[in-house]
């Protein structure tokens, strides 16, 4: 029979966070091995529960969650998001500018589907959260990666961004706070990005899903709060700040220069209507989450579990010979660098496979985040202290053996 092939639209699409290494780990688990999974920021499995008031409100409202809602979402949670944008000082946002989605992920794909024609280009950071690159490709566009500079705290290289703008460029993606590096961009960097968008009439798509997961007293500036003459699409949700990954409750806010974007906005409205609506139970969680006690502050503040585990993971990793890591200011991840002089890695996916096979630790290789060289990997620092110490100890043991096998011990 004629083979049934996947669409060629998927040729350049990958998502290594749940890629081949995860499949290998599942096989190993079926064989009886216990795997320490540091590949994904799934907070619930590490004991980070959502606030009780969110859970209770969803339960109480479940009887009203069986029908379709408005295609953009229910009024009350959208009003809560509007108030949230006002607190972030994003101007001119109305109820009609807010779209609720099945997590920010659905809305990222929607934003790209509504925007791109074949051959259009979007500037995406390297390293990036790989869904952005995949969404551009799946929508017929070409992702063009601008470098974030590790030597400068993983801030975007504005000159590199400028060099890569062409007549085909439609938008700039800004992931702030950043996944996978944990970088938090200062206002002056954000203003430089806005100026590029202004000069070249580009849209700014801002992924701000970690805007409350901040350490050491850091503050987050929403890039859309810094100008009103550029079109901004800001994406956020409950997954990380409120430990509610599985509820799939996210939102997208259109702000700034909307007058010249009516046709694009019509396209977003059409796409929102085609999916009928976001899941209603998740929508019921939004108003309670945004208006309730912000328990994330207890986790990231002095003595908080996330802060303690960030500090522990950073020390354990950087104590390993040849391993350096910019200490994250935000988010849930480490993106350490392996000195190529000590770790001559040619294929970092194979490196991740070997670590999994030998030490039963699952991480994601750096090229899975569209990084340019096989010299980084990402891990989450969510396991409890004992498991985190065990995992980093296994990584250290593997790297010691790697150095010895390659004569770099």
UniProtKB/TrEMBL annotation:
Domain spans labelled Aminotransferase class I/classII large? 34-395
State which Enzyme Commission number(s) the record gives.
2.6.1.2
Question: Which Pfam families does the entry link to?
Answer: Aminotran_1_2 (PF00155)
Q: Which InterPro entries match?
A: Ala_Aminotransferase, Aminotransferase_I/II_large, PyrdxlP-dep_Trfase, PyrdxlP-dep_Trfase_major, PyrdxlP-dep_Trfase_small
What is the top EC class of this enzyme, as a single word? transferase
Gene3D superfamilies (alphabetical): Aspartate Aminotransferase, domain 1, Type I PLP-dependent aspartate aminotransferase-like (Major domain)
Per UniProt, what is one GO molecular function of this protein? pyridoxal phosphate binding
Q: Which family does it belong to?
A: Belongs to the class-I pyridoxal-phosphate-dependent aminotransferase family.
UniProt cross-references to PANTHER family, sorted A to Z: GLUTAMATE-PYRUVATE AMINOTRANSFERASE ALAA
What name does the UniProt record give this protein?
alanine transaminase
């Amino acid at each position: 029979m004629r083979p049934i092939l996947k669409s060629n639209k998927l040729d350049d699409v990958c998502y290594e966070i749940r890629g081949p290494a995860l499949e290998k780990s599942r096989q190993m688990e079926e064989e009886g091995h216990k795997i320490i999974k540091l590949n994904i920021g799934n907070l619930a499995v590490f004991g980070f529960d959502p606030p009780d008031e969110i859970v209770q409100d969803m339960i109480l409202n479940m009887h009203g969650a069986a029908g379709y809602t408005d295609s953009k979402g229910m009024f009350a949670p959208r009003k809560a998001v509007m108030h949230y944008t006002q607190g972030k000082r994003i101007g001119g946002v109305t109820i009609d500018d807010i779209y609720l989605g099945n997590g920010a992920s659905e809305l990222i794909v929607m934003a790209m589907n509504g925007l791109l024609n074949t051959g259009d280009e979007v500037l995406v950071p390297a390293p990036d959260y790989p869904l952005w690159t995949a969404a551009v490709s799946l929508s017929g566009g070409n992702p063009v990666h601008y470098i974030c500079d590790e030597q400068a705290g993983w801030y975007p290289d504005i000159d590199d961004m400028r060099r890569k703008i062409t007549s085909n460029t439609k938008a700039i993606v800004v992931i702030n706070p950043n996944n996978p590096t944990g970088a938090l961009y200062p206002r002056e960097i954000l203003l430089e990005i806005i100026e590029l968008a202004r000069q070249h009439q580009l849209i700014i798509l801002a992924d701000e899903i970690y805007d409350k997961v901040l350490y050491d007293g850091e503050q987050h500036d929403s890039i859309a709060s810094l100008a009103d003459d550029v079109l901004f699409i800001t994406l956020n949700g409950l997954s990380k700040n409120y430990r509610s990954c599985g509820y799939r409750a996210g939102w997208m806010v259109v702000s700034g220069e909307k007058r010249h974007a009516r046709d694009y906005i019509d396209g977003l409205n059409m796409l929102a209507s085609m999916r009928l609506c976001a899941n209603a139970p998740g929508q019921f969680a939004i108003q309670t989450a945004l208006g309730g006690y912000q328990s994330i502050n207890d986790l990231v503040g002095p003595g908080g579990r996330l802060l303690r585990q960030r500090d522990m993971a950073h020390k354990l990793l950087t104590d390993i010979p040849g391993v350096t890591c910019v200490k994250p200011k935000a988010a849930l991840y480490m993106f350490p660098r392996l000195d190529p002089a000590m770790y001559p890695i040619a294929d970092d996916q194979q490196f991740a496979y070997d670590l999994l096979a030998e030490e039963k630790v699952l991480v994601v290789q750096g090229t899975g985040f569209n990084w340019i060289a096989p010299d980084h990997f990402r891990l989450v620092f969510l396991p409890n202290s004992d498991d985190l110490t065990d995992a980093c100890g296994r990584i250290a043991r593997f790297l010691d053996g790697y150095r010895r096998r390659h004569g770099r011990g």
